């Protein structure tokens, strides 16, 4: 009578472990999807900011040197790839900060664009940290519940915060 009882308990434990692993794998999948979505939103906000800065640079409001500085920084931020992108976006942030005193008519719109980039980056990085924390749990690594998804990475750039 003890052997069937032990098999029943083992079966229940395996069933619970399987349910937990399935739930965790689903949660990881949702988190990875949220990371991709947050990255797309961040890329969109960075592109909007670059376009706004390029429009400001061509508006004639600024002196030629500031216009050239902003236009160059906006162009580099839009065309940069991979590791260069974070640095180019940081340079754009510094360029906007250096010329912000001269852009009074554009201040509200530019300030909104800068805040949207800050929020999108923070949201992205928060989701990445949550995903990484879950992926570092023992059961996730032992049973390879993350599949073949690459480990997400945070975006580190100066965004005026």
Descriptive keywords:
single chain, 161 residues
Radius of gyration from CA coordinates: 24 Å
- SSE order in H/E notation? HHHHH
User: In terms of quaternary structure, what is this?
Assistant: single chain
Number of strands: 0
Average pLDDT taken over every residue? 93
Which stretches of 5+ consecutive residues score pLDDT under 50?
none
As a percent range, the share of strand residues is under 5%
Our measurement of the CA-to-CA distance between the termini, rounded to an integer number of angstroms, reads: 67 Å
Structural commentary:
- The chain is mostly helical and 161 residues long.
- Helix content is 76%, strand content 0%.
- It contains five helices and no strands.
- Helix 1 (2-57) runs antiparallel to helix 4 (107-135) and helix 2 (64-79) runs antiparallel to helix 3 (83-99).
- The longest helix has 56 residues, at 2-57.
- The protein is rod-shaped, with a radius of gyration of 24 Å.
- The N and C termini lie far apart (67 Å).
What's a quick, concise take on this entry?
This protein is mainly alpha-helical and about 160 residues long. Helices cover about 75% and strands about 0% of the residues.
